Amino acid sequence: MSRSFWTPLHAKIHRTIRSRHLFERNQRLLVAVSGGQDSLCLIKLLLDLEPKWGWDLGIAHCDHRWRTDSQANAQHVKNLAESWEISFYLETANEPLNSEAAARNWRYQAMKAIALEHNYNYIVTGHTKSDRAETLLYNLMRGTGADGLQALTWQRLLTDKILLVRPLLEITRAQTKDFCTDFQLPIWEDSTNEDLKYTRNRIRLELLPYLQENFNPQVESALAQTAELLQAEVEYLEQAADRLREEAMRGGDGEIGRWRDGETRRQEEILLLKLNRRILQKAPLALQRRVMRYCLQQILPCAPSFEQIEKLTGLITAPNRSQTDPFPGGAIAKVENDWIYVSC
What we know:
The chain has helices at 8-19, 37-53, 70-84, 100-117, 129-142, 146-149, 173-182, 199-214, 219-250, 277-281, 285-299, 306-313; strands at 28-32, 56-63, 87-92, 122-124, 155-157, 163-165, 271-276, 332-336, 339-343. With 344 residues, the chain is an alpha/beta fold. The chain has a 6-stranded mixed β-sheet, sandwiched between helices. A 3-stranded antiparallel β-sheet has the order 7-9-8. A hairpin with a 5-residue loop joins strand 5 (155-157) and strand 6. Helix 2 crosses helix 7 (173-182) and helix 5 crosses helix 8. It is elongated, with a radius of gyration of 24 Å. It starts with 7 loop residues before the first helix and ends with a strand.
């Protein structure tokens, strides 16, 4: 496991980090290492690049307690960290987690806690081009919009001090496996990766191979490229929607979240927000929906559905005095002349 050999993959990741400004020099990076091929490829690349960038690397491992060998897996990663003489942090779930979503949420919370406690600026994960393609298919089948289809981004703020970074999004899983083989990295085979009860495993083991064989041999790259294109478009739409929302909430009167003078309301009625629909009417539907989704996210106890977003968006052009039936939590939206009021 020599640290001196320089490959085209080293050069590619070095260029990617520099051109995309993924990390600054002399920063503390907390690397998520499961022991699988992607995370071993990631930590080896970062170790080899470390002298050029002056990083201070640490390894975080999360034990979900899904498997009987999970403790041995954690010890394996700890041994690797010790052999590389870098800090190792282990977080173990109090009880086995029962779903992919629960495990993912717990894992990110655990890594954030480690990073905050030990002053790491970045959390780095080994998500690849293959993961990006799988995530796009997974979210497409769940009915998410463009935001979900581009969910695996290069960078994402976890807190105001910690940035999540994914440097391998242009690298396929086949490439990480070849890299581990070339450097004789000891991959820990996770048996749950073959379990077809998990949706993502069925996408990886059954759906993608079928699409490659019957539709497009390069489908993985095509899907990842689509996600990359969508990322830039989503960023643009979000910025435009933020500007529109601020304008609509002020409506030209400089007030946010207040009833207008002269309006009478039940004493117990609480205004949650108001939007000027004349301003919203001038905007494209895509931006209208984004504004309404944002507003619902602030007032609903759970993520708004497409139907709920459409219901609120419909008030932009609805007749005066129109109103919705109650949203979850009891909020009701009403049209009064130029305004949409949401109250409970």
